[in-house]
Predict the structure.
Amino acid sequence: MRWDSVKDVNCSVARTLSVVGERWTMLILREAFLGRHRFDEFQQGTGIARNILSSRLRDLVRDGIFDRARSEGDSGRVEYRLTRRGLELYPVLIAMMRWGDTWLSDEAGPPMTLIHRACGAKTAPDLVCSHCGDHLTAREVVAIPRRPAPAHPRRTDRSDRKRAAR
């Protein structure tokens, strides 16, 4: 399967990757969740080349992750604001951060601490059941497909194409 066709696969993971699967995207989103809004702030926070950043921001606007708008005030500079669709990627970013904190931190520990604004306490967000509130792990969840679907469209073989051409 070609990467550009992954958005057409009957799989939510594949479709999501078609939007956020490029290697710089999650770092751009990290910067946005840290309160960055401007091109130069994204560039400084990620170290990404300007042409690549420009392309990724254009794609993220096209995909509805960011809105592009003029900033308030005299400068009128372009800012990128997370949309509702973009804000809902926060749990994905936090899950990646949590995995990295667990498996990739150095001896000094995780590079960032999360504080819950409402109570002021350090927090480690967790995946819980929306029904009973229990913690979830991969072994405690069963994924049931909506309906059986082929992983990719059936390719016609040569004999099928020859018969169709007659």
Remarks:
- DSSP finds seven helices and four strands in the chain.
